[in-house]
Structures are given as C-alpha cells and as structure tokens.
Write a structure and sequence with these properties.
Number of helices: 10
CATH topology of the largest domain: Rossmann fold
Number of strands: 15
Helix content: 25-40%
Distance between the termini: 38 Å
Strand order of the largest sheet: 6-5-4-9-12-14-15
Structural class: alpha/beta
CATH class of the largest domain: Alpha Beta
Strand content: 15-25%
Shape: elongated
CATH architecture of the largest domain: 3-Layer(aba) Sandwich
Largest sheet: 7 strands, parallel
C-alpha cells in the first residue's frame, strides 16, 4: 500500500514533533539513533533536522542535534546529566569496576558515569583513587567500608570548579602530571572518529589530557548516546583508548568504526 502526500506529511509532522521532544528531554540526539528509532533513511532524518533547525526548534551539530543553545561549547550541570540514561551508566560502571584490582592506583575523571563507577569502588581494599571531581571525592568520603578494613585512599586535585563540578586549570594539571596511574577511567561529552573524546570545556580538556598522559591504561566509560557527538575541545584520540566500555545500544556500524581505532570494545548489558 502506498502513502498519499497528506499521509506522508502527517507522518513527517509526527516524527518531527517526537524528535523535538527527545531533544528537549535529553539535551541532544544522534542521527543514527533517529534512523534506528523511526526506521527511515539517513537523508530523511537530516531533512527533518534541517526543517526543525530553520524553525528554531533545535540546533544542528555534527552527527545530530541539540537543544537550542546547547552548542559544542554548552556545558550542562551535573544534575542535568545525572538523570540521563542511568541504567546504561550503571551497567557500564559495573563492568568497569570488575577491572579494578585491589591495591592499584587509578584515576577517575569527572562525569556522571565515572560517578556511578565510584559508587562500586568504595570498598575495594588498598585502592588509591585520584580524581578532579568534587562529586566523586564526596561519594568516597561519605561511604563506610562494609568490610571493616581501610577503604580507598582518595586524592582530590585542586583547581577551578566547572559547572559539572570538575576541578580544572594549572593547579589540577600540575598535580596530575606529577603522578602515575595504573589506569584512568574517562567520561566524555562526546566520542567520534574525527574528534575522539571531547568536552565543551577547554580547561577540562587540558586536565583530561594530563590524566591520559599519566596513565598506563586508558579506559573510556561512555554510553552509546555519546557516539557522534563533539564537544568544543578534544582530549584523547580514539587510538589513545585501550578499552571503551559502552552498551549494546551502539549500532553495528559504530562498533565497526570504533573497533578500527580503540584497543578493545566491551558492551555492558544493562
């Protein structure tokens, strides 16, 4: 059965309204996600985004769209990000925690997925954790070790506070560069083949570069919704990443592309 022009127009209008709702609720969407959700072509989605951008209902960015005002330099607060895709973050955190060896020295960058990971590491014996996240440090400080032994040693860098409660700048960078970690777990605003791991905050990007340079193993913890998004400043190439822990929502095409660059890809089931 073929569709009439009026039926196609109605379906397009409903789809575009759903896209706007999704952008407003989540802050941004990717073209690949919309293609999978609505089962239409890439070009159809891009035409939808063009029309919605002209109407001022969203803003197009590389690989998708964001809410008006949420450009590559837009940095949402911690609470705004924490409520997004919580089940995926917890699954990724569980998989990442299984890799942490008691007695090792690790670093956790700021972010809501690394915050979820911190919640699973509070009783790991002999662990040393360096972080530039106020929220992550507070989570460790507030947790009592249920095993009764000494909990992790937590080192909070100094620095200037960002909207997402990261400490950045020369003080944080100098502290990190003087240390050496067995592994660093990195959250990211966006991940793409072109920009690698990126963030909207220039100073945070520099601090994250210091974390990468000081670690023997670089582990990215980011759910599939980050794929194709690009922040203002990149801080690691995909080839710098030894392991990317994400979720099965990552499309087959994205998995194939990522596998060309990262050392290993781990899909954590929610």
């Amino acid at each position: 059965m073929t569709q009439t022009d009026s039926e196609r127009g109605l379906l397009a209008g409903q789809r575009r309204a759903a896209i706007v709702r999704e952008v407003r609720e989540r802050g941004g969407v990717r073209v690949t996600e919309l293609v999978d959700r609505f089962r239409v072509s890439d070009m159809t989605i891009r035409r939808d985004l063009d029309a919605l951008a002209r109407a001022g209902q969203l803003e197009k960015v590389h690989g998708g769209a964001v809410a008006v005002g949420e450009s590559s330099a837009y940095e949402p607060g911690f609470e705004a990000k924490q409520d997004r895709d919580t089940a995926l973050k917890e699954a990724i955190a569980q998989a990442a925690a299984a890799l942490v060896i008691p007695g090792s020295a690790i670093a956790l960058s700021a972010g809501t997925t690394t915050y979820a990971l911190a919640g699973r590491l509070t009783a790991v014996p002999g662990l040393t954790v360096v972080t530039n996240s106020i929220r992550i440090a507070e989570r460790f400080y507030a947790a009592a070790n249920p095993n009764g032994g000494p909990g992790p040693t937590v080192v909070l860098t100094g620095g200037v506070r960002t909207p997402s409660d990261a400490l950045v700048g020369p003080v944080a960078d100098a502290a990190i560069r003087s240390l050496h970690f067995d592994a660093v777990f990195l959250g990211s605003h966006g991940i793409s083949p072109e920009a690698g791991l990126s963030t909207p905050n220039l100073a945070e990007a520099e601090t994250n570069r210091a974390l990468v340079a000081s670690a023997r193993r670089v582990i990215a913890v980011a759910d599939h919704t980050k794929w194709g998004l690009t922040g203002l400043a990149g801080f690691a190439r995909l080839s710098d990443v030894d392991l990317w822990i994400t979720d099965p929502g990552l499309s087959e095409a994205a998995r194939e592309t990522a596998a060309e660059f990262v050392g290993d890809l781990l899909l954590a089931e929610a």
